[in-house]
Amino acid sequence: MINKTKKVAALFASLLILTSALTGLFNVSGGAAGEPAGGSLFASIYIDDFGFGTPAASKNINSIKLYPGGMPFGVKFFTDGVVVVGFCDINNGTGAQNPAYSAGIRVKDIITAINGDELLCAAQLTATIEKSGGKPVTLTYMRDSREYTVTLTPVYSEADGRYKTGIWVRDSGAGIGTVTFIVPSDYSFAGLGHGICDSETGELIPMQRGIVTAVTISGLTRGLPGDPGEIKGYFSSGKCGTLLGNTEHGVYGVFNELPKSIPEDPLPAASKCQVKEGEAYIWCTLDTNSVSKYTVEISAINTGSDSNKCFTITVTDPALLEKTGGIIQGMSGSPIIQNGRIIGAVTHVLINDPTRGYGIFIENMLDNMPDLLKQSYVEE
User: Fold this and answer.
1) 116, 115, 109, 105: which is closest to 137 by C-alpha?
2) What is the pTM of this model?
3) Which of the residues are catalytic?
4) Which of 46, 114, 204, 220 has the fewest CB atoms within 10 Å, counting from its CB?
5) What per-residue confidence (pLDDT) applies to 18?
């Protein structure tokens, strides 16, 4: 993992739980290297215009009412192209070679086409390279929002008996998080309060498409200083919604129908300036598989923040402290309510003190909804 990620991991972790899909990680060329579905979960370390396109400052945010979430949801997604996550040298009998690295490909690059054809999945990349017969192939890739094209020659691997380029790529994944809010008019929703990031690179995953599934919580691991806990769960069968956006301020989508576990009636959203230091409560689902309320304390509010770490959360609820030790992975997106308004969502836990973490303003999450979903806000 990159050094920047390691440094930040010592301080805080995002609270999304990720699991690699069966075809999620590929050695190009050569089969899947990810864990099978249902394998162990691992945590993603995250580094660090509202309503009808109108900036939040000139809009009455309190006129927007939203169902608070608190229920878990699962996502299964495919990336837009394939993401380079590592390299593996190839021994062709004369020494170790790596055509991709030598041609300038680097970790975090997003390969979008091969030989001019749109790249839809890692298996397509693998098949094209294996069938190349050692002839040059042309890759189109994105880096820092700029497009590049490079030509490289696959190398025949003596050990595997096939042509390879020496890169590991990811084209899909899955994760579990918590819903923050649902729009009453069309069941569009937001969750997590931060984006889904690649576990290898720490970068936001360029999501092409995804589905939303229900989740059953099977247990949890209590958090300890230096060892964040986690909610454990598994996907229920079937699709209950569509994922439409993955941003640094949350993931967004639409439910097929309103979840049955809504904890309370729609509440108005709070502006940044309405968030106050003091008592609040969160909604989240633990091992009882029901949405429950827990008290927290809000402090260190930064009203100028446009990030996903806008204020500090301290867990004060005795029941939550006893059960989880504080904030644990999987609680990302848990809505925070204060003075009858939704003020934001839980996003991070301090690794060395699981009783404390960070939250994002609901205003920031609304501002960054995909334009398609912004039209769904209903003013009452």
Assistant:
1) 115
2) 0.74
3) 194, 317, 332
4) 204
5) 43
